Fold:
Amino acid sequence: MKRRYKIILIILCLLFAISTLIAFLTHSDYIDSRNDVWFESNTLFVLIFIFVISQNTILDNRYIKYGFLLLIFNQAYDVLTEINYLDAISDKYDLVDTMIEDGTLQIAYLLIALGFTKLIKQINDDVSADVKMTH
Structure:
């Protein structure tokens, strides 16, 4: 594993430890659900790690890149709205909250699907061009 990835993985493990401490050692009046904070923050860290290690491969495709960034934004929003104060604000604006939570997720999935479709088409076109050159 490259040194850069090891450093990032160590940082994410430290963030995992911090999220565990926050989830289980903070006063329950501040957090809506300890388990949600813990799992959602860990999902956020996994998404960030995938994003970082994919920088020079699939993330060259802008659809996939922006789809992943939306997934990261969506997950960060989920984590932040576990804080009771922010959850209360989001509850006041239910439509906006739903658009952010569900809308960004749907757009992210669509962007990633479009990106993979373009990648597969490009690979098929490259293979077809190689086959034509050999004949």
